[in-house]
Task: inverse folding
């Protein structure tokens, strides 16, 4: 699986999920249509997005996705066209939400952030866990090996469903 | 043995180790609310035959926008309600409802040693009971409802040892803000914070919930406090009055990946000045000289500015952080016989809290002071229903998040304890109860 495309960089740390998708837009019962409100909680969010309208790869500062657990943040980014987020670090819940929605989370060395911020294009090889910017040499990154399979394979819920017999056996043995 | 409390809870719930350092972790309780549950419930219905692992382990509630404010939120509530009834889940709804992190412990659903998850980041609140409680996304919550488990990386454990005792005018909220200030807004990432020490033992269950509630604001997976006599007494008085649970505690030589020590006696009433909960100063202090420019610009404050010079436009007492009965008592003690100068909203954390407050006459104190006394809900905290701020409006709030736009597009939020919010509402600017009392003494 290769993710290739234009880069939009918002070089700020601590972009929280209230900025990615404010609570007033969490009134649906499905995952669709949130792209129009993506980044609308950031004071200049829409202007930032407008700089690279066809961006599929978002580059951001550390602790991306902190705050609320709302998976709507991952849904909004995907609906807006993003397929990967590159950051020095992610907040825990957002990271899991990204994996569960095939929004590839690429964690990079903080020292490389300026280089990524300056990028126009990037190519992410999910299988081999490398990213290259503007045709340069591949840079290695690491994905959680189990959750990576949720991106490239059948997804999180089918995997967990396959574990129900194991859980049931443990539950019965443990709670008897 | 050298295991932490967290280690013991974790190890008794691991069903299976998985590749990449992951584990399949059994969830004793899943809490489901109307904002983050419907998508997952619908996915289970469509793709997995509508089966739930164990309906007895799911508690459902309409809490975020309850009663519904419009058609969209009415649909959310009705989907949740219909689903909960179809599966015969315990359901807290309009009339007997409340904020999930208030009502779930208040009724006695959480006991020491449990694992709990909910599609809500403030689920860490429930760690106050010696449980491992964490916020997750909608898909993960659906997984827990479908298969009874989460897939988790084992978090590291940071001991937050709080020695001494809090001064009389400092609260669990001030301690929570101090912890975030100490370890940093993202310093807890990858950790569970295990709170220990004399100041923690001295906290009420409500204070412990306030402290654990804000573990996520340091980026932590959760917070956890060993159960003791305070916990047992609290649980015995709940509706479910649970029994038969084990109160584990850390071994005396427990291993922690990191230890932070805090002197409780140095904690002051604290108010945030910036755009994350780590950006806070004592109420009688100043905005720091090295404050980040973006935070200063958004909040329209300047380095060296006295906190007490910051005028406010609105005050809010409520949220899963500070809307329990002791919080309302603290606010009422400050507001008694006073008048608020700015629009002030008081939102109890549950309808049971509301009824208790009314038995004590607190609602009269608030309303005599000119404040609005509302039904229970998440309310203004997340800018989703009532009490939304206009751009540029400044609100002092007993809630947990001061992110840009959190309480309304362009709105500004200062976090504080209920007592400081009450004093500020009366003064029309950031103020401590002590300062208010001193002014009253002079006027009298």
Result:
């Amino acid at each position: 699986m290769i993710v290739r495309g234009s880069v939009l960089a918002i070089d700020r740390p601590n972009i929280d999920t209230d900025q990615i998708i404010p609570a007033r837009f969490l009134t649906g019962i499905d995952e669709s249509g949130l792209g129009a409100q993506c980044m609308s909680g950031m004071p200049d969010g829409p202007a930032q997005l407008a700089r690279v309208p066809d961006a599929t790869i978002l580059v951001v500062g550390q602790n991306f996705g902190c705050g609320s657990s709302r998976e709507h943040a991952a849904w909004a980014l995907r609906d807006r066209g993003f397929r990967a987020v590159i950051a020095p670090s992610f907040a825990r819940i957002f990271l899991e939400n990204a994996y569960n929605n095939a929004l590839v989370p690429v964690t990079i060395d903080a020292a490389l952030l300026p280089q990524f911020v300056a990028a126009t294009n990037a190519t992410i090889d999910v299988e081999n866990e490398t990213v290259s910017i503007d045709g340069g040499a591949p840079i290695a990154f690491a994905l959680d090996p189990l959750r990576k399979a949720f991106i490239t394979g059948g997804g999180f819920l089918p995997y967990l469903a396959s574990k129900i017999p194991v859980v049931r056996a443990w539950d019965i043995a443990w709670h008897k | 043995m050298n295991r932490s409390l967290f280690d013991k809870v974790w190890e008794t719930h691991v069903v299976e180790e998985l590749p990449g350092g992951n584990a399949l972790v059994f969830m004793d309780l899943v809490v489901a609310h109307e904002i983050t549950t419907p998508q997952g419930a619908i996915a289970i219905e469509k793709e997995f035959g509508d089966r739930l692992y164990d309906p007895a382990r799911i508690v459902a509630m309409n809490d975020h926008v309850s009663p519904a404010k419009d058609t969209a939120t009415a649909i959310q509530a009705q989907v949740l309600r219909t689903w909960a009834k179809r599966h015969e889940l315990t359901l807290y709804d309009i009339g007997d409802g409340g904020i999930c992190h208030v009502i779930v412990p208040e009724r006695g659903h959480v006991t020491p040693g449990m694992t709990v998850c909910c599609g809500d980041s403030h689920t860490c609140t429930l760690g106050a009971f010696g449980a491992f409680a964490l916020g997750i996304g909608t898909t993960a919550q659906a997984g827990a409802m479908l298969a009874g488990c989460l897939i988790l990386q084992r978090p590291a454990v940071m001991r937050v040892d709080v020695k001494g005792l809090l001064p009389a005018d400092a609260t669990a909220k001030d301690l929570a803000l101090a912890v975030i200030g100490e370890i940093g807004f993202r310093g807890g990432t990858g950790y569970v914070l295990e709170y220990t020490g004399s100041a923690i033992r001295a906290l009420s269950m409500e204070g412990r919930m306030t402290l654990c509630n804000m573990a996520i604001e340091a980026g932590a997976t959760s917070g956890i406090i060993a159960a003791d006599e305070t916990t047992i007494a609290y649980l015995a008085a709940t509706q479910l009055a649970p029994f038969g649970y084990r109160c584990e505690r850390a071994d005396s030589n427990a291993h922690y990946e990191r230890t932070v020590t805090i002197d409780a006696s140095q904690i002051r009433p604290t108010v945030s000045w910036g755009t994350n909960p780590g950006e806070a100063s004592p109420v009688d202090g100043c905005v720091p000289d090295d404050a980040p420019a973006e935070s200063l610009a958004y909040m329209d404050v300047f380095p060296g500015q006295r906190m007490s010079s910051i005028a406010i436009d609105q005050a809010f007492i409520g949220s899963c952080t500070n809307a329990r009965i002791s919080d309302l008592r603290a606010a009422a003690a400050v507001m008694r016989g006073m008048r608020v100068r700015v629009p002030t909203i008081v939102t109890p954390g549950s309808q049971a809290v509301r009824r208790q407050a009314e038995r004590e006459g607190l609602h009269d104190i608030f309303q005599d002071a000119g404040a609005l006394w509302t039904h229970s809900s998440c309310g203004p905290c997340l800018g989703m229903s009532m009490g939304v701020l206009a751009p540029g409006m400044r609100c002092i709030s007993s809630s947990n998040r001061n992110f840009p736009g959190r309480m309304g597009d362009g709105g500004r939020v200062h976090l504080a304890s209920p007592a400081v919010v009450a004093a500020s509402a009366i003064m029309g600017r950031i103020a401590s109860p002590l300062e208010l009392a001193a002014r009253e003494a002079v006027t009298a």
Q: What stands out?
A: The mean pLDDT of chain A is 97.
